[in-house]
Amino acid sequence: MTATPYRPQSGRHHVVIVGAGFGGLFAAKKFKDSDVAVTIVDRTNHHLFQPLLYQVATGILSEGEIAPSIRQILADDDNVRVVKGEVRNIDLDAQHVTADLGGKDEVLEYDHLIMAAGAGQSYFGNEHFAEFAPGMKSVDDALEIRARITGAFERAEITDDPEERRRLLNFVVVGGGPTGVELAGQLAEMAHRTLRDEFREIDTNSARITLVDGGPQVLMPFGKRLGRKAAQRLEQLGVEVVLNSLVTNVTREGVTYKDMKTNEEHFIPSYAKIWSAGVAASPLGKHIAEQAGVETDRAGRVKVNPDLSVGKYDNVFVVGDMIALDGLPGVAQVAMQGGQYAARTIIDEVQNGTSAEARAPFNYFDKGSMAIVSRFNAVVKMNKAEVTGFTGWIMWLLLHLLYMVGFRNRLVAAFSWGLNSVSRRRWQLVATRQQLHARNALRKLRDLEDKEGIRSIEVRDNLRFGEGRDTRAVSD
After folding, report:
1. Is the pLDDT of residue 3 over 80?
2. Dihedral angle at the C-alpha atoms of 372, 45, 426, 236, nearest 10 degrees?
3. Is the pLDDT of residue 471 over 60?
4. Closest among 139, 51, 150 to 426, alpha carbons compared
């Protein structure tokens, strides 16, 4: 650990931002040209446009198009320093953030702190499901899912066992939110459109895609009409939509779910399973809440004050997926607006001397919700207005292009979407063995090292906050 906590040599007011997602990045950008020094800490080197992860998983876009470098994005913001590291501790009283930079600790002293660490996948207490059903929260997740999807077709092509071939061509998506609906729709288009002439021993049209959700409809926040429209379109694509059903087990062989109306259990043999059923806020939220004496909800989100501060700590803001306030949803717009609000508030107090007591509460402007169901078809809810079909699809394209970071990414994404509209080909279906096996290989390596009482650099660099830590490296 460094003897002296880091502060910028400029002596300016120091703001530390934890997380470079929508909330953290939009906050950092807001500080440009202000009399404030900013340090932004993230465990990756890229800003992830998470709503488009499923397009990486299904071969429409490459990962670089939705995950530009944080340093490149902020290169022109001279008052912003980027630190790639995993936050291991936050001391609200000392105003210190400790980050692990691959085995080297750096302590950052802040005047204001913005927590924007986001959320991860939740398996509702069944973490062992993750071994066989990856979530959809990171670039690694999307690349692994792409490898599992393409691998299923490749294995089906060479097997001589009819039962195994059926299992390989069964795809199960758990969760009927926007990610689940979008994934199921794209899987159907891949099987029935993209890959239909590329194999010789199998008919990809025979692939079975099942979407399982515990609710009475898909896309619950969108309302009954749009949920029904989305389900109808999925069924037209050949997706089997199973509602009012809870997944009770996920194994190497498949998925077991329970019909909540009849209490009957059903088993779907499947090789490629994808989990998109729930989210859990970063455990850093609970870490902060305990120090501030405030509660967290069941998803680990922090119950914040109307100005997004925490308890008595008016110099600590929590934004995005980490907050529990007035039922705000965990969507990108909440994070963007929250990050900008926190930055504006800090700038006002630093440059104008405004007191914390004079803050106006955070006011979220709902710009609506969107989900693409298939090519030329999306559902859009904007206040009372509901749009479906081709018009909704155009609106979805325009909004996502608007919020993508970087002109090149917008241009390439628009070009890729245009090609996908007129051609059934997809040009981003590369999959490697490393992408397929790395996550579980690291998990097994960690289990082995736990038994031996050691920790390699490969495992240590993949430990997240709250997972335990041993910085003794056996290899570098």
Report:
1. no
2. -20
3. no
4. 150
The residues with which 84 forms a beta bridge, in sequence order, are 42
Torsion of CA 297, 302, 304, 310, to 10 degrees: 140
Contact between 458 and 439 under an 8 Å Cβ cutoff? The reply is no
Length of the chain (residues): 476
Per-residue pLDDT tens digits for 202-231: 999 999 999 999 999 999 999 999 999 999
The mean pLDDT of the chain is 94
Planar angle of CA 363, 53, 44, nearest 5 degrees: 80
53 in Cβ contact with 276 (< 8 Å)? no
Helix (H) or strand (E) holding 78: none
Task: Give one DSSP letter per residue of 397-415, joined into a string.
Answer: HHHHHHHSSSHHHHHHHHH
Closest CA to 229 of 272, 181, 186: 181
CA distance 271 to 240: 17
pLDDT for 476: 45
The confidence band for 54, taking pLDDT boundaries of 50, 70 and 90, is very high
49, pLDDT greater than 50: yes
349-406 pLDDT tens trace: 999 999 999 999 999 999 889 999 999 999 999 988 999 999 999 999 999 999 888 8
Q: What is the DSSP annotation of 296-324?
A: B-TT--EE--TTSEETTEEEEEE-GGGEE
End-to-end CA gap in the chain: 19
Whole-prediction pTM: 0.94
Question: Catalytic residue positions?
Answer: 182
- How far CA 204 is from CA of 153, 200, 428, in Å, comes to 8, 10, 19
Alpha carbons 188 and 396: distance in angstroms, whole number: 20
Give how far Cα 306 sits from Cα of 115, 309, 312, 362, Å.
Answer: 15, 7, 12, 6
Phi-psi region of 11 (alpha: psi -120 to 50; beta: other; left: phi over 0): left
Region class of 353: left (phi > 0), else alpha (psi between -120 and 50), else beta? left
Buried b (16+ CB within 10 A) or exposed e, 24-56: bbbbbbbbeebebbbbbbbbbebbbbbbbbbbb
CB 117 within 8 Å of CB 285: yes
User: Which residue bears the tokens 């259990």?
Assistant: 265
Return phi, psi of residue 56, to 5°: -70, -45
61 Rama class: left (phi>0) / alpha (psi -120 to 50) / beta: beta
Nearest to 184 by CA among 275, 291, 93: 275
Residue 40 has pLDDT above 50, yes or no: yes
